[in-house]
Design a protein that fits this description.
Layout lengths: L6 H4 L4 H15 L7 H4 L3 H15 L2 H33 L2 H23 L30 H4 L4 H11 L7 H5 L5 E2 L6 E3 L8 E2 L1 H20 L5 E7 L4 H10 L14 E11 L10 H17 L3 E6 L4 E6 L1
Parallel strand pairs: 2-4
Antiparallel strand pairs: 1-3, 4-5, 5-7, 6-7
Length: 324
């Protein structure tokens, strides 16, 4: 049993303990001078207390058995509680809601986790787009013009006509007259420009307009090269017209303007519906709708720099451009 210090301990001292204490005191009194100072300085009360501790420690075997029995009772109680809880769990697991719902759901979840952990990771491949809404190069964003074609490119004919009359030539009646005008220079095909079958116009323009057209084509091609895309050229569908050309055109198209800016050598039309692929053997393609957005982004930069006036024409499917 545990040792209790204080007066309660002294009341339980037996005669045998007192006899042992007296004999020990006599030995301490007759001890030699060589006894350590720490032993000689102990008071009789300290020596009595140490003797009692030694005697009680020798009798502590019965207390260990009692503590062992106490631990055994606690262990039995714990096992009883464990058996009761396990039985309650098994009874609840036998209910239909558990056997028909929770257990199958748990099994399916564990099976799915196992399959996912065993499945090796796959390399992600960008899907090949079926339309022009996406760029064909994996990882590249599609060309999208942020804005409105109708609002951003809405320079009407009166505005463009004023610029054409101030920078251009006097309209020629026939093509022979047009060829005799020294100020006009030929508009030739470039790596960024292709001339369409010009049935009602002549590829002659003032130098400022030729330079503008070449720079637009170069900027368009440069953007495709920088993005690693297949190369395309812009198609010029109309350039400078004579009065005879305008007369024939009005017979075919009643909406043709009688006073067109094309007569002054300052205007050209670039198609936003058709583009010329540079390498037909290249399996990669970009849809015309996406190329139209890229062309609009290029033209917007020239328009904001004050280089030209632009009108987005829906019926003719072109950008009507006049140099400024």
């Amino acid at each position: 049993m545990p040792i209790v210090r204080g007066r309660a301990l002294l009341t339980k001292v037996s005669a045998e303990d007192l006899t042992k204490f007296a004999s020990r005191m006599e030995k301490d009194h007759n001890s030699s001078p060589d006894t350590p100072l720490s032993e000689r300085r102990k008071t009789p009360a300290d020596l009595c207390l140490e003797e009692i501790i030694r005697s009680r420690s020798s009798r502590s075997h019965g207390g260990g058995k009692e503590e062992l029995r106490l631990t055994g009772r606690r262990g039995k109680a714990f096992l009883a509680r464990l058996r009761r809880r396990l039985g309650a769990f098994l009874r609840s697991a036998s209910k239909p809601v558990v056997t028909h719902y929770y257990l199958p759901l748990l099994a399916i979840t564990l099976l799915a986790i196992l399959l996912i952990s065993l499945t090796p990771p796959r390399e992600s491949h960008a899907p090949t787009p079926a339309t022009g809404s996406y760029s064909i190069t994996p990882g590249e964003r599609p060309y999208r013009y942020i804005g409105s074609f109708r609002r951003d490119f809405d320079d009407l004919n009166p505005v463009q006509l004023e610029a054409a009359q101030s920078l251009g030539i006097t309209p020629a009646k026939s093509r022979d007259d047009l060829l005799r005008i020294d100020r006009l220079v030929p508009l030739k095909e470039t790596p960024g420009l292709k001339l369409d079958d010009l049935t009602h116009s002549v590829p002659l323009m003032v130098p400022e307009a030729v330079r503008l057209a070449q720079e637009i084509g170069a900027a368009f091609r440069y953007q495709l090269e920088a993005d690693g895309q297949p190369l395309y050229r812009l198609i010029v569908t109309s350039v400078t017209r004579t009065e005879e050309d305008m007369s024939e055109l009005r017979q075919r198209n009643g909406n043709a303007s009688p006073n067109s800016t094309h007569c002054y050598g300052t205007t050209l039309d670039i198609s936003w519906q058709r583009f010329d692929k540079v390498d037909p053997e290249d399996p990669r393609t970009i849809e015309p709708e996406e190329l139209k957005h890229l062309l609009a982004r290029v033209l917007k930069a020239f328009h904001e720099d004050g280089r030209c006036y632009i009108k987005h024409e829906r019926k003719q499917a072109c950008f009507h451009i006049t140099v400024r």
